[in-house]
Amino acid sequence: MAKLKKRVNDMEAFRRMLATQDLKATPQRIAVHEVMMEKVHASADTVYDAIMEKGGCKITRASVYNILSGLADAGIYARRMTSSSKMLFDVNAYRHIHLYDTRNHELMDIEADDLLAAADMGIRRRRFRGYKIDDIEVHILCHPTRKKLI
Q: Which domains does the chain have, with CATH numbers?
């Protein structure tokens, strides 16, 4: 079971979180986190494109991926695999449910502890021969019923 972690809401909290993991608050990590705070769920490519659009920080696409992976390894972010096999990073590393928009390929957070508890209870009662459950992630596949409001 994954540890419960809270969202890193501001830059100062992010800097403290980095310090607890012996990571420096480099301009590149700060730039990545600024984009992730806006996007919440994003691929490395999306984060890289947003940083390039803003300008001001020199960083490579590979560095963005490495920073996101390092932050996920440290438990500051989480990795989320979509049903279309795309890796997204999530600034909310705590356990929660996602709606996955199958048309726009976007994740949206759903705070529904009762549903998460029901899924946990139902799955953990079962035995899967030859496997041990590490964690349970719930992604509800959906599509918009009307045009997206802008």
A: 11-90 (1.10.10.10), 97-142 (3.30.1490)
Which pair of tokens denotes residue 73? 């390894």
Evaluate if residue 49 carries a pLDDT over 80: yes
Handedness of CA 108, 110, 115, 116 (dihedral sign): positive
Average pLDDT over residues 118-133: 87
- Side chain identity at residue 32, one-letter code: V
What's at 129, amino acid-wise?
A: R
10-40 per-position pLDDT tens digit = 899 999 999 999 999 999 999 999 999 999 9
Helix (H) or strand (E) holding 87: strand 87-90
Stated pTM of the model: 0.81
Helix 27-39 to helix 44-54 angle, to the nearest 10 degrees? 110
Q: How far apart are CA 70 and CA 67, in angstroms?
A: 5
Determine the Cα–Cα distance for residues 124 and 14; give it in Å rounded to an integer. Answer: 33
Report the alpha-carbon distance of residue 92 to residue 80 in Å, rounded. 11
Phi-psi region of 59 (alpha: psi -120 to 50; beta: other; left: phi over 0): beta
Query: Strand, coil or helix: what is 7?
Result: coil
